[in-house]
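#struct-pred
JK: can someone run the complex with hypoxanthine? inputs below
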Amino acid sequence: MMDQFNETVNFLKAEGIDAPAIGIVLGTGLGGLVSEIDIIKEIDYDKIPHFPVSTVESHHGKLIYGTIANKKVLVMQGRFHYYEGYNMQEITFPIRVMKLLGVQNLLISNAAGAVNLAFQKSSLMLITDHINLYPANPLIGKNLDNFGPRFPDMSEPYSNVLNDKLRAIAKEKDIQLHEGVYVPVTGPNLETRAEYRMIRMLGGDAVGMSTVPEVIVANHMSLPCCAISVLTDECDPDNLKPVGLDEILAAAAIAEPQLTAMYTALIGQL
Ligand code: HPA
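RT: done, structure tokens with the ligand placed:
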């Protein structure tokens, strides 16, 4: 396993990706930050050794290396999801590669449904905690001691330091930033009314299909991370309307400039 990581790291270094300080994962419909990057190198995922091979139509992602605010960033434009058929080790492979390349902070974004009905569509939610409802975990199997311990602590899964900076940035920019608990499910179907009700009863504020595997491996490696959800639909079990991908993407597009502004400002402070 470590040989695979090393091969990928050596490949990327040979391509000039030598010193990224900040890793970024951009979620569905949230590619806007890319226009802020002074790009040094872009590589399609399918050209990178040991990156998961894309099996599904929509996700032709790429890795982008460059600078934002004079900081070296390594950006995943598009991520791997469990519902596409990848296993948890595959989904999180790029995050571990980022760490090996020297990334010191990980900034994550996603599109999610609002189960806290006080939160409106097209607003942002800072993820302060999560409840993992995936039936799998990227750390199952032999522990990779080079990365971290067998039983990693999860008392601060999302960095207080990064979250405090994001709170201050939101205030300064007059951006509404909700805070809450993110609950990941496998998808790909959206939830039933009874499932939304259950997620709310469990203590969730938003539901989505990603992020937590990446956060778990980041914590395993003591890599500080933060995550912001763009809320794309309101999951009101008593008044549920059909939601399609186009509506989710349209709602994400409205909030995206705020997300981009928040992360650009954060990068400037790191
Ligand atoms: N459920 C799960 N994932 C999602 C949703 C949702 O309502 N909206 C955007 N991603």
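RT: quick notes.
The two ends are 31 Å apart (CA to CA).
Residues 51 and 93 are 7 Å apart (CA to CA).
JK: thanks, will look after standup
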